[in-house]
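User: Could you check the structure of this?
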Amino acid sequence: MALPADSGGKPSPSPIAGSVFPVQGAEELLSSLAGVLSARVVTTPTGMLEAIHVLTSVEVPPKQTVRNVESALMAHFGMKVDHRKISVATTVEPVKPWKTGGTSGGGEVKTEADLDRRRLYFEDVEVRRSRTKGVTCKVTLRKDGVAYHGEAEGIESDKAWVELAAQAALVAIMQAGGAEAIPLAVYGTKVVEAFDREYVFVGITVRVGRDAMLLTGSCEVRESTETSSVLAVLDATNRWMARDG
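Assistant: Sure, the predicted structure tokens are below.
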């Protein structure tokens, strides 16, 4: 004879605990959020949530995207997700959706970003102050699911933050390129006002053989100048890599 559960014992677990995460439904939901270009949910062999990877445009700041993901999953599935499991990467380039062939004629919606694994995406930038080192800027980029980090140090000033972010981004880019990485250097950075908005412009020098090329990129300032500096670097280098790759 089965005995009833002790109602005065331990509290019931969270709705997400011990449940199988609805991968397909969650990916479709997250892909419909503002600014989201694609979403991928990773689960453990037992079906528990391991990570959520989201690729976004620059229209929505990463922190807002994380909040949107948390709210959407709670509202639609009643699931509370730890924000540390949500990874947001940003691209300044438009990602064109396309469809693979299917028997039903509709096909599965894919994106150019799902296929172009050479492209790097912005994930995070962190600025730290120190009495001994001045300012340290750490940039995290992601390519094909792997994170790459770059750091640069300098003096304390608003202008320095923009240039340090660009330098740290190049360190991460060359780390991602490994032994075959072509040396890159920051030629200059500039914050300008135009059309009642602020933009970060960067110049990147790259040496190919005996020739030196100047790559340029830009990004509107929406969250911070250092974030826009990294995105401007990616605007310049991703286009060059796509053309030469």
